[in-house]
Amino acid sequence: MKWTSIIAIYGLFWVMAGFLVLPFGVRTNDETGTEKVEGQAESAPANFSARKIVIRATILSALMFGFFYANYFNEWITVADLDLTTYIGH
């Protein structure tokens, strides 16, 4: 696998991991007991930390890419395994 492919695939995993970890640990002002700013949405986070999101997304994406890369070389799941027409019974 080329290094450019590695970077591109890791980037895709990182973005996906970012969206997956985004809601974890976020609390609203009602949950934290802090005062809201006028016009603030009820669901707006009171303790958003981009640093935590980046760290969690980086760790999760490294794990996901590690499994992907191991599967790429060990061929645990191949394209032939994903061919559903063999299971439908044509």
Task: Report what the structure shows.
The protein is mainly alpha-helical and 90 residues long. Helix 1 (3-21) packs across helix 3 (50-74). The two termini are 35 Å apart. It has helices at residues 3-21, 29-32, 50-74, 85-88. It is 58% helix and 0% strand. The protein has one domain.
Compact description:
The protein has helices spanning 3-21, 29-32, 50-74, 85-88.
Question: How do the strands and helices of this protein lay out in sequence?
Answer:
Layout (H helix, E strand, L loop, with lengths): L2 H19 L7 H4 L17 H25 L10 H4 L2
Helix pairs in contact: 1-3
**Beta-strand fraction estimate:** under 5%
The backbone outline, from C-alpha atoms, is elongated
Structural class: mainly alpha
Query: Major sheet, described briefly?
Result: none
Query: What is the assembly state of the chains in this entry?
Result: single chain
Average pLDDT, to the nearest integer? 92
* Strand count: 0
Number of helices: 4
Q: What is the count of distinct domains?
A: 1
Radius of gyration: 20 Å
Q: Low-confidence parts, pLDDT < 50 over ≥5 residues?
A: none
Which sequence of SSEs, written as H and E, runs from N to C?
A: HHHH
Secondary structure: helix percent: 55-70%
Keywords:
90 residues, mainly alpha, 4 helices, 58% helix
